[in-house]
Amino acid sequence: MPTYTPPLRDMQFVIHEVFNLVEELKPCPRHADIDVDTINAVLEEGGKFASEVTQPLNRIGDEQGCTLDAKTHEVATPKGFKEAYAKYVEGGWPALSCDPDFGGQGLPLVLNQCLYEMLNSANQAWTMYPGLSHGAYAALETHGTQEQKRLYLPKLVSGEWTGTMCLTEPHCGTDLGLLRTKAEPLGDGSYRITGTKIFISAGEHDMAPNIIHLVLARLPDAPQGSKGISLFVVPKYKVNADGSMGERNGIHCAGLEHKMGIHGNATAQLVLEDAVGTLVGEANKGLPAMFVMMNAARLGVGNQSLGLTEVAFQNALAYAKDRIQMRSLSGPKAKDLPADPIIVHPDVRKMLLTAKAYAEGGRALAIYCTLLLEKELFHPDEKVRAESAELVALLTPIVKAFLTDNGHIATNACLQVFGGHGYIEEHGMSQFVRDNRINMIYEGTNTVQALDLLGRKVLSNNGATLKKFGKLVAQLVEEEGVNEKMAEFINPVAYLGDQLTKFTTEIGFKGYQNADEVGGAATDYLRVLGHLVFGYLFARMAQVALRQVEAGNTDPFYQAKLQTARFYFARLFPETATLMRTARSGVKVLLDTDAALA
Question: What are phi and psi of 239, to 5 degrees?
Answer without folding.
Answer: -110, 125
